[in-house]
Design a protein that fits this description.
alpha+beta; three-stranded antiparallel β-sheet; two-stranded antiparallel sheet; 9 helices; 55% helix; globular
Length: 202
């Protein structure tokens, strides 16, 4: 097993933002493998973040972003548990990034739970009509058609719900992943409460 030196622990700490003791334990658990240790800390952090997500977020900040053409802008309420975390650079950077996401990707809702039932019913009907226009689909069992429609609904969420959208800077992440990672890093619950997007001519 590679020697777990102070320099290795320091490197892991710098790369993950985790505490010194957590870094030592991660390296010990993974045989000194840096990449495995990062994965180990990430998994532990996300598990903790899931528990923290149940806590009430009563503080936070209002963020704003205006694109450099002055034609598109966004306002965002991002909540957390304490003013201490709300004032950190990491929290403020997260708010800025989400504001940019709103301006660029034009979401309609924060989460899938916010999408009205009548909107989903209308979307399902449109998808069903589109599928039935293809003769091949008319021979498929109803349960298969239903599965295809639900797959399209999931895609609707990914396009129209902020937390389900692909992050504009990294398509491997969703906005909800950014939030979860920051919860794990800062140790407090973080909630995207509401937003508004403004565009000239819309």
């Amino acid at each position: 097993m590679p020697e777990i030196t102070a320099a290795v622990v320091k490197e892991l700490r710098e790369r993950t933002g985790s505490g010194m003791m957590d870094c030592k334990k991660a390296l010990a658990e993974t045989g000194g493998d840096m990449e495995k240790a990062i994965d180990y800390l990430r998994e532990k952090g996300l598990a903790k973040a899931a528990k923290k997500a149940e806590r009430t977020a009563k503080d936070g900040r209002i963020f704003h972003y205006v694109h450099n053409n002055f034609k598109v802008g966004a306002l965002l309420e991002l909540d957390t548990e304490t003013d201490f975390v709300a004032r950190t650079d990491e929290f403020n950077n997260l708010g800025h990034e989400i504001c940019m996401q709103i301006a660029a990707a034009n979401p309609l809702y924060v989460t899938p739970a916010e999408v009205p039932a009548e909107v989903l019913d209308k979307e399902r009907e449109i998808y069903r009509q589109q599928l039935m226009e293809d003769e091949k689909n008319k021979k498929k069992p109803a349960n298969i058609i239903d599965k295809i429609i639900e797959g399209k609904i999931e895609k609707y969420y990914e396009i129209n719900c902020l937390l389900e959208q692909e992050y504009i800077r990294d398509s491997d992440k969703k906005i909800k992943d950014l939030v979860t990672e920051m919860i794990a890093k800062l140790g407090e619950n973080i909630v995207v409460k509401r937003f508004a997007r403004f565009a000239i001519g819309e």
